[in-house]
Amino acid sequence: MSKKILVISTSLRKNSNSEALADEFIKGAKEAGHEVEKVSLADKKVGFCRGCFACLETGRCVIQDDALEIVEKMHDAEVIVFATPIYYYEMSGQMKTLLDRANSLYGSDYEFGDIYLLSAAAEDEEGVDSRAVSGLEGWIACFERAHLKGTVFAGGVNEAGDIKGHSSLVVSYEAGRNV
C-alpha cells in the first residue's frame, strides 16, 4: 500500500552528508511505490516560536514564513523523515526550530504515524546521535499516534560528500524501501 512520505532535510550545507542519506531513503521509498516529497530547509525562512500558543486556538502559527507550508505538509504526511547533521551531539538548530514551530499540530487530526531520523556526524562513536534521537522522541511523545519507526546514523563524515560509499547509505535506502 502506497504511503505519503515527507522528507525534511534540515542541513543548510549544499551536498550535505545528511541530505545524501535523505536522497537514498527517497530513492528506496519511490522504488517501493510510495509518494515522496522532499523539503529542504536550506532555502526556507523559519523563525523561532514565540510561545504565544495562538496556534492551539487557530490551528495555524501567527508567524508568516515558510514554516506554515512545511507544517501543513507534515500534517498531511503519513510518514515524516527528518534528516539532520549532528552538531554538538544534537540535532541541528533549524530542525529544533521547525519542531517548535509545528506546535499547531498538537491536538490536530494529523496523518503521520511513522517517524524516521537520518543523521550524520564527524564523530563515529556509538551514541553520537543519542541526544538527537532523544530530542525527536520528546516531540513524538506529544503525538499519541506517532512513533519513532527507525534511525540511520552515518558517523565519520565531516566534509560535504564524505559519505560517498558509506554503508549507512545502503541502510537508508533499505529503510525507504521498507516503509
Automatic annotation (TrEMBL):
Q: Name one Pfam family in it.
A: FMN_red
Membrane-spanning intervals of the chain: none
The protein's matches in InterPro entries, at most eight in alphabetical order, are given as: Flavoprotein-like_sf (IPR029039), FMN_Rdtase-like_dom (IPR005025), ISF_SsuE-like (IPR051796)
Query: NADPH-dependent FMN reductase-like domain location, by residue?
Result: 4-104
Record flagged with keyword Flavoprotein: yes
Q: Which SUPFAM superfamilies match?
A: Flavoproteins
Provide the protein name. Flavodoxin family protein
PANTHER family on file:
NAD(P)H-DEPENDENT FMN-CONTAINING OXIDOREDUCTASE YWQN-RELATED
Which UniProt keywords are given for this protein, alphabetically ordered? Answer: Flavoprotein, FMN
